[in-house]
Amino acid sequence: MDRTVSLPNQPDKTTTVTLVESSSAPGGLELVSAYQTNRAGDPLDLVALASQVQKGDDFIKANACNKLTVIADQIRYLQEQARKVLQDAKRDADLHHAACNIVKKAGNIYYLYQRPSGQKYFSIISPKEWGPSCPHPFINAFKLQHDMSWTPLEQVEKRDAELAIMDKLVSQQASLPPVTGPNFNGLSD
């Protein structure tokens, strides 16, 4: 049974309240007084009920908006990560196309220089080792990783620490017991 009522703080706006169907003897038994359950009641009770419905709708909308905001933040984060991956891939491709007269081996650091012609090339000699007789402008130093990606020298220490942690996790995984269910041990301590 639906009832339409006006809200006290918004007289020009009405809302519909769905009330539970009444029965004087549900299942053949009279459980409560028919007078109490079937009377029209105070109109302000319906207004209060309508106000609760409105608050419930507002809460549901706010809850959905909050969840969508979290998803939007995650999308922005993933877009930024994708942009960084593409940027790093372009840098790695450019570095792999730099001239080099030696066989590059993973784990070594290479120094990138640029000739007056614009040609970029790798050397195993650092600018410090060249000293004042460095033949061309130095661009940057890079470490060739085992996955054939390049890490700028200023980020090598951080990257090596991250890789050491991942290596430790991978090597310890073999010794972990099989997971049979959620494990929340240590989260409440």
From TrEMBL:
It comes from the Eukaryota. InterPro entries: DUF2452. Residues 1-20 are annotated as: Disordered. This is Chromosome 1 open reading frame 50. It comes from Takifugu rubripes.
